[in-house]
């Protein structure tokens, strides 16, 4: 027979469960508030004592209500926190199994994909998935088998809260550790996140990729293009993580492809340069200018002059002044043309409210991020520097120095070229010959500020360079190998071999 105390405890439990069953949304919300406040941090034995060995009866009610109402988001935050008290309690393996048996993992993953659910509710769902994943290898495999990696990665890319994104990173990091069956799936999911539009998601994915790469060992071929595209971003924190990952990847079999891609990034593609080129220069004559530069066809409307005032996409320079002061000047009444030759581009009047520009400098233009990685890799490993020389990195660096559309890239290219000139004599000879003595001395005096001192003609000289040190490098390597073969030590060794024969 049960004692009087046990009977009283059972009666309290039945009364509590009856109150829950008969309560509406508001009453259940108050019950959850009281439960969270009273039982936060308790162990599984303490929860059983609180519910007279019937805690599982309340847990099954919570999971049932979760399955019925998670699409509406009714008290979802409190409901998930209450379930978390059971799952995170010490010695709570029984509660975890009961939660998984009713499809708890699938419910949590479905919550992540619902647009009507609040960000805070999804954050609590991520925390519960962390508890499940930290419970052991088989639970990590269960999440991955439920297409969890895809759902979690998509939520990371779409989330607007940095705190929630950091919680997702913790979950992905847990899934990649101690999960040999599905760690490659997590690795590919992280690579798929790199092209997403969220800079925070890119940063966290790159951080987790470094950990996953060291665990897996092998590389996936698609990682090269994805990481190189991330280097184009204007967010410095994302650039830093990409650089750190590439410094690790050069130790793997993708090193040649990475170096080739880095060298190619130094020269902008035709698509990039066409975006920055004013429309009046592309031969379409959108303003209706004739060979004499008349304004016939312009219509006298400010709207027809907008192509001259547009700022390139992703430009770091301030937008044009909204007033009409940036319109092109009409031709002079005398009929004399300004500029070179007929049909010259009309000059733009400077806005009186625009900031003054220092003489001898260029306003920095955006559209392409500076890339210090070639210099970082070359300084860290001479063999990598030699490999980049074979890929014509000197030619690409000189072209980048002449690309006046991107001042930051000009600066980084000058500093990188300075290292190659100081380290390899053959590079110094070719660079001096290509630049000319005056420009070369200007480069040696101040590589970091060269982009502010060169004029348009010197920039064209740099951009149109034909430097190719590959042939001299092959000759140098061949001569060094021949000198080694015919060194005195090797000759004595050959004579000894002939004498023995």
From TrEMBL:
Identify the species of origin.
Equus caballus (Horse)
Q: What is the lineage of its organism?
A: Eukaryota, Metazoa, Chordata, Craniata, Vertebrata
Its protein name is Armadillo like helical domain containing 1
Pfam families reported in the protein's UniProt record: DUF5578
Region Disordered, residue ranges: 320-374
């Amino acid at each position: 027979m049960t004692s009087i105390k046990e009977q009283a405890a059972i009666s309290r439990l039945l009364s509590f469960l009856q109150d829950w069953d008969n309560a509406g949304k508001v009453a259940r919300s108050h019950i959850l508030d009281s439960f969270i406040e009273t039982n936060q941090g308790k162990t599984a034995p303490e929860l059983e004592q609180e519910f007279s060995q019937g805690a599982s009866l309340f847990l099954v009610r919570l999971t049932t209500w979760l399955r019925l109402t998670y699409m509406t988001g009714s008290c979802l935050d409190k409901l998930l926190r209450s379930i978390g008290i059971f799952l995170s309690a010490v010695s709570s393996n029984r509660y975890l199994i009961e939660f998984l048996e009713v499809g708890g993992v699938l419910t949590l993953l479905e919550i992540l994909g619902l647009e009507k659910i609040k960000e805070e509710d999804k954050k609590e769902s991520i925390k519960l998935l962390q508890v499940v994943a930290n419970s052991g290898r088989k639970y990590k495999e269960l999440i991955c088998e439920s297409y969890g990696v895809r759902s979690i990665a998509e939520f990371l890319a779409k989330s607007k809260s940095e705190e929630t994104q950091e919680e997702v990173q913790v979950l992905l990091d847990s899934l990649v550790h101690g999960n040999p069956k599905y760690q490659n799936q997590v690795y590919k999911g992280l690579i798929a996140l790199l092209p997403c539009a969220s800079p925070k998601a890119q940063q966290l994915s790159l951080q987790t990729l470094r950990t996953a790469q060291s665990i897996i060992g092998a590389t996936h071929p698609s990682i090269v293009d994805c990481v190189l595209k991330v280097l184009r971003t204007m967010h410095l924190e994302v650039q830093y993580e990409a650089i750190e990952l590439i410094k690790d990847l050069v130790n793997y079999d993708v090193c040649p492809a990475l170096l080739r891609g880095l060298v190619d990034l130094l020269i902008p593609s035709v698509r990039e340069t066409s975006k920055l080129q004013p429309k009046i220069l592309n031969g379409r004559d959108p303003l209706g200018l004739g060979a004499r530069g008349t304004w016939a066809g312009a219509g006298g409307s400010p709207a027809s002059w907008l192509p001259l005032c547009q700022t390139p996409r992703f430009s770091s320079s301030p937008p044009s002044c909204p007033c009409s002061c940036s319109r092109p000047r009409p031709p002079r009444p005398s009929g004399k043309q300004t500029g070179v030759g007929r049909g010259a581009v009309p000059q733009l009047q400077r806005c009186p409210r625009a900031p003054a520009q220092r003489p001898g400098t260029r306003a920095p233009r955006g559209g392409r991020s500076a890339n210090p990685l070639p210099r970082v890799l070359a300084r860290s490993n001479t063999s990598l520097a030699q490999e980049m020389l074979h890929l014509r990195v000197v030619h690409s660096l000189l072209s980048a120095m002449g690309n006046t559309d991107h001042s930051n890239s000009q600066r980084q290219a000058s500093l990188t070229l300075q290292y190659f000139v100081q380290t390899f004599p053959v590079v110094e000879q070719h660079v001096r010959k290509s630049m000319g003595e005056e420009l070369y001395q200007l480069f040696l005096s101040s590589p970091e500020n060269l982009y502010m001192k060169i004029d348009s003609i010197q920039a064209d000289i740099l951009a149109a360079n034909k430097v190719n040190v590959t042939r001299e490098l092959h000759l140098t390597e061949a001569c060094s190998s021949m000198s080694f073969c015919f060194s005195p030590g090797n000759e004595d060794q050959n004579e000894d071999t002939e004498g023995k024969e």
